[in-house]
Amino acid sequence: MSLKFWMGLKAIVEVIFGIGFVVAPVLLGSMFGMNLDKQGALMSQLFGTAFIFGALILWLCKNFPWPEAQKIVIAVTLSNAIGFVVTLIATLNGVWNALGWLPVGLFLVFGLVFAYFWFFKKSV
Hints:
By secondary structure, this protein is an all-alpha fold. It has helices at 3-23, 25-31, 38-61, 66-92, 101-121. It has one domain.
């Protein structure tokens, strides 16, 4: 599959999570087994805006030629590696419920796919 496909797919996943965290942070947090107070809800909403920002960047850049797209690929690979580690630690430490494996898996899959384009495919 093409880089354009993966950028579009990741954008869609990010905008879904982003809207959820902005519009209903307490509900979404409770689905993951978290109890959010007002401050936690605010942080979740800010987190959601970051997801929406990432989705917009991916969507707007999905047609870029390789030299420009490579910069996005590097950023996505590194941010997904960090997200994978953070969510894996949170899940293993019981910070949230078993649904926490969903973001772990998403960060892992997208991180590996974008790493593939960064290190091996090197084209759109």
